[in-house]
Here is the input.
Amino acid sequence: MELIELLKKLIESKSETPDDGGLLDFIESYLEGFTAIRIDKEDVKNLFIYKKFSEGDHLCFAGHVDVVPAGKGWDTNPYEMVEKDGFIYGRGGQDMKGGLAAFIQAVKVSESFCGTLSLLLTSDEEGEAINGTVKVLEYLKEKDMLPDSVIVAEPTCSNIFGDAIKIGRRGSINGYLTLKGKQGHAAYPEKAINPIHKIAQVLGNMAGVNIDDGDEFFSPSKFVITDIRAGMQVTNVSPNELKMMFNVRNTTITSQKEVRMFVDKHLDGLDYELELTQGSYPFRTNADSKVVHNIDRAIESVTGIKPEHSTAGGTSDARFVAGFGIEVIEFGVKNDTIHGLNERTTRAEVEGLFQVFKNLIKQWR
Here is the structure.
């Protein structure tokens, strides 16, 4: 099976989270000569498949076969690969079946490697991610099989293929604030405590404000308000309480402690409750690590571009990999249509990604 034919198979297998669309069984059979381990949890399908060529490093390619729902309004059938006007259309083309096709084919055609090659695949990256990658990593740790380096083939490039890799990600702190007041008649504001008025007096000093200044690797941790609601949708009653939700994509400088201090500072003297949860933790792989040196060299060899080392964007399963002390980076095709209508990539990018991974495996040192 040729590379683009493989991509067609991946795109046309409908695999909306947590359904794998039968792809993990297909990949297991496609990688003949590899040893497969299934670590399925509830309705989530997980596959770890590996081949030991010799003694040496264990290099793992990781990713997800699941995609978000296609939605309505596509110009083409989202579950049919359509190639036109220089683009390949189909749900998952960028996120991340283009990356999957590239590394599956790269390990399949590799006849040698100075160590072990493996793939870690899940059907639960776009969902809650509770029974996916992290469960596989827990299993591998228990069996003393954790890889030395991991490459996640999420879409990373901004303007042209090869211009960026992710060497880290910010964390994600979610906040749930309840500001207490005293319900009353709007005509008698002196007899009530209106929480909307109270929050309005400080909101300008909180909304969109940086909690830290960032550093050379991370942009600042910003206080982003995502929802505010209060009242009973009437004009003559001031509300008893106000609920506000916010998110902070945090650097390694800012933790839940600093976020709480930020809120305490601005709401000092007010009656409120604050709950914080951590969706993910920030991490950064050292730029001098083996995996960064090797992927940089492979990208430059294939594209002539020296990639930027970025930590921008949201989260990925790389956060789980980093939590196990493994050197991890992300590299894939351009990221400009993921999760959108008419998601698309290009033949040139997918073929280029295959060549980068093939070169990486051959020249690993």
